[in-house]
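Researcher: For the annotation table, I need structure tokens for Phosphate-selective porin OprO/OprP. Please keep the output clean. Sequence:
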Amino acid sequence: MKLWTPRLLALAVSAALAGSAQAEIAIDVINGSEISLEGLMQADGNWFDNDVADLNAASPVGNDGKDSEFDMRRAEVILKGKGGRFDWTAGYDGKANKWLDANIKWKLGTNYVLAGQYKQPNSLEELTSTRHNDFIAKAMVTNLFGVARRVGVAYGDDSQNFGYQISYFGRELTRNLNQGQGFGGRVYFAPMAETGNILHFGLSAVDFDTDADTARPRVRPDADQATIRLVDTGNILNADRQRTYGLEGLWVGGPLKVQGEYMRSRVTRTTNQQEWSGDSWYVYGVYNLTGETWGYKAGLPTTNLPDNPSSGMWQLGLRYDATDLNDGAILGGKEDNLTLGVNWYWRSNFKFMLNYVKVNSSKYVSSLRAELDDNPNILEARAQFYW
């Protein structure tokens, strides 16, 4: 895979640049199915102003221990077919060497049956397309409790103002990644669902078997390239199942979007040992300085193209997110982060992002017999090309 992925990406980039800027490359129509190619490439840089822990400590994955880290974040190629009663998709990330969405959808009006690998229905931010995430790193709650892609089968309905999905799932398609059979569901209601005027509410729940009877809730400090987690429960042994409930809300008024989520998760155990519960949440606002707004489709916000492609679309964003992993004798720690972001969408294939993250964390350290505060600062940048 490593040998041919760069060549495939180079060909896809050349094809996209050769024509007019667009969201996808049309390939052919076969038996009424429109075949297209999509792609996403992201290159990230992180600069760490450490407090106590070395957030970029040397690791086997290539981090060199310096105060800055640069790497390709994603290199995705996705083949899609749309038309008639069936839609299908097959995607692969050449950077992570893993399968993305690989599924087929049988459309029954607004209802559908979905089979294969797909994102599970329990996180508004995770379900939103990665290319249009409003901040470089997803919020802590998403990285902690979002189940993301698993192989399974689902049934749902996506009308304009109301929808739901119920899902049964197993492991990831790529070997040696996330495992554990379970089920989940999400329901949403949007009393206002017009472009530029959106009000959305949602509820979700997932319940799954823990992998190897062990659970370990932990999360990076809103920095994808950090090797250290400032909050970490450690291994919770004899874990049986993990169940997570989520609340989500979204409001769009013209050029302003406000979004938030709350999740609470519980790990049950096969013995009489203490169970564990923790929670996490975020709220953020994004303002389009150039006046554009957002659309809405199938229970998710959609990002519009710049009104003026040559000057692009400029956004300002502010996010607050918090996590509490302390429960009884399991002291995973607390963390709250403030993220300030600037995004520039240029034409319809390029996006540039700059984030500043102020981290505040506290965790009990047994060797000190005391709480240890660790409050670093992080600067992040991303260059993105997509089609």
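Researcher: And a one-line annotation?
Model: Residues 5-18 form the longest helix (14 residues).
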